């Protein structure tokens, strides 16, 4: 009977925390690697939604055209190439470092 208590204690105090830790790490890993939604597809879906609202009469033509202009601006901003990061200066060569005297 004592062996059963030891095995149950080992299960809950050693095995279960390790399994939960591994599951938590895998969950974090997979959550970080989820693909980001395509911005062009999102903008196209938004434009289709605006057109549908306009055809149903939920949006006035003026407001719908303003929203479409904003969506076109977002497409252009997303299509522009990203600015490259400025290059960092190269580290100084070892010969340029000051030498330190270690003794008299």
TrEMBL record:
Lineage of source species: Bacteria, Bacillati, Chloroflexota, Chloroflexia, Chloroflexales
UniProt source species: Kouleothrix aurantiaca
Transmembrane segments: 6-29
Protein name: Uncharacterized protein
UniProt KW keywords: Membrane, Transmembrane, Transmembrane helix
């Amino acid at each position: 009977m004592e062996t059963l208590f030891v095995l149950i204690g080992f299960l809950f105090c050693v095995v279960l925390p390790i399994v939960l830790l591994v599951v938590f790490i895998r969950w974090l890993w997979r959550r970080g690697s989820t693909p980001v939604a395509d911005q062009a597809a999102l903008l196209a879906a938004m434009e289709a939604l605006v057109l549908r609202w306009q055809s149903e009469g939920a949006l006035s033509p003026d407001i719908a055209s303003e929203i479409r202009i904003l969506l076109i601006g977002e497409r252009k901003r997303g299509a522009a190439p990203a600015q490259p990061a400025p290059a960092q200066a190269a580290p100084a060569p070892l010969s340029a470092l000051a030498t330190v005297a270690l003794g008299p």
